[in-house]
Design a protein that fits this description.
The chain is an all-alpha fold and 440 residues long. The chain is 72% helix and 0% strand. The chain has one domain.
Length: 440
């Protein structure tokens, strides 16, 4: 019986890998062959995803997390880095908006470049049931961030400053928690590297912007730390919060269920079943958001129609994403639209294959629930019909940074080389963002 339980989750991983490959083959038959390059790119994506699942199956036999004394997270360096990025934002605002007030300058850089204005308007006026108006599109944004943003506004009386403080505080807490998770999973050598990689990922500057990235990442990291330490109530609360900040929060059902099933041997079926209702906590969080949709527009799924009609976005197989990204890139280069190619197509392609490659590379060593969540997050975030923000989505996936720390090698030179590569990409991407190269 115990042997059967031990084999259940790995078998599920193998079945899922086979299902993904079968779905890709069916998609080719139904949709038609997208050309040689399209087949190659889609096949690479599917194979990598399948390998990730099979490596995860092998990871179920790994040892438990390391039992270590409390280490010393990089408190000061992390705080200095976060303050430095905020200083860059402030200097940028002042240099590009002379002749207006400091607060207006911040509004201009954030409201004209990313979705910060949408969160600020929700914080000010909540959601608007106004058909045919731009205001109705705010329902596509989840409520937790604007609610907390409004709380900070009562202190600082500026929405951009409120958002930057909220995001920076969450980012700092994320760094400390990710350090603890990486230390438990990989030991002392990799923990500091994992935190460093997380904060110099090319799009990591979004963690300090008045956007929901760091707020989503905080309950995500706290959720997994609670799971590792078997504090199920705290994990359930964090899953609930994540599901009220971004749609990907509903995916917490997967790692939660995996951990509960894996612990049946230790606690027995009866005790495990007693905790199983906690697995539904992310669904409760999503339910609160759907209730807002229903109360405002009379349709719990209204946000999906907004995504489709206003942004032209809908769910799509993740293997189709690199296919159309490559087609767009070719079109932009041939038509001379290099700004769109450099700011949109190239970063999204690199984020797609780089992120998936790192997930797969760390799958055999990391906790299976971490990898399964990462694969599900990847499939949901990158599996859309018009990918605009792949690098930004990737910065919310902290297991990528831990995987990078795992595969970098043991030498100091390998660590410095990977840090240098990430940092150069970080500087290049923030340069593109500040110069309006279609970075979203």
């Amino acid at each position: 019986m115990n042997r059967a339980r031990r084999g259940f989750l790995p078998i599920c991983c193998y079945i899922l890998a086979a299902a993904v490959i079968a779905a890709y083959c069916a998609w080719l038959v139904i949709k038609g062959v997208p050309g040689i390059m399209g087949i190659v790119l889609g096949l690479i994506a599917v194979v990598l995803f399948g390998v990730g699942l099979t490596r995860t199956a092998a990871a179920f036999k790994r040892r438990e997390p390391l039992v270590l004394a409390d280490g010393k997270p990089p408190y000061i360096l992390l705080a200095l880095w976060i303050m430095s990025i905020n200083a860059v934002f402030i200097v940028w605002a002042l240099m590009t908006s002379p002749g207006i007030s400091f607060f207006q300058a911040l509004e201009r850089i954030w409201y004209n470049t990313i979705d910060a204005n949408n969160y600020a308007e929700i914080a000010d006026h909540w959601y608007f049931p106004v058909e045919g108006s731009q205001l109705q599109y705010k329902i596509a944004f989840f409520p937790l961030y604007p609610v907390l943003m409004k709380g900070f506004w009562y202190i600082v009386r500026s929405m951009p400053i409120s958002g930057m403080i909220l995001s920076s505080a969450c980012a700092y807490a994320v760094g400390l928690i990710v350090y603890k998770i990486a230390r438990l999973e990989l030991g002392d050598d990799c923990a500091s590297s994992a935190v460093r990689y997380l904060f110099i990922l090319p799009s990591a500057f979004f963690l300090m912007a008045p956007m929901t990235e760091s707020l989503y990442l905080l309950p995500t990291a706290a959720f997994f730390l609670a799971l590792i330490k078997k504090k199920r109530g705290i994990a359930a609360f964090c899953a609930f919060l994540a599901a009220t900040s971004r749609p990907q929060g509903v995916l917490f059902v997967i790692p939660f269920a995996v951990e509960m099933i894996a612990q049946i041997k230790e606690y027995g079926i009866s005790k495990s079943l007693k905790y199983f209702p906690l697995v539904l906590s992310p669904l409760v969080g999503m339910g609160c958001y759907l209730l807002i949709n229903f109360q405002v527009y009379g349709d719990p799924l209204y946000f999906m129609s907004v995504q489709s009609q206003h942004w032209g976005n809908s769910l799509s197989p993740f293997w189709h994403t690199p296919v159309y990204l490559a087609e767009y890139l070719q079109h932009y280069l041939e038509s001379g639209d290099t700004r769109i190619a450099l700011g949109l197509s190239v970063p999204n392609l690199l984020a797609f294959f780089g992120g998936l490659g790192l997930i797969v590379s760390g799958a055999k060593r990391l906790r299976p629930s971490l990898t399964l969540y990462s694969l599900a997050y990847f499939a949901m975030s990158f599996g859309i019909s018009w990918l605009l923000s792949g690098p930004r989505y990737l910065c919310c996936l902290f297991p990528v940074a831990i995987a990078a720390a795992r595969v970098r090698g043991k030498g100091r030179g390998d660590d410095l080389l990977l840090s240098f590569v990430f940092f150069v990409c970080f500087v290049a991407y923030i340069f593109l963002f500040m110069n309006r190269f279609y970075v979203y």
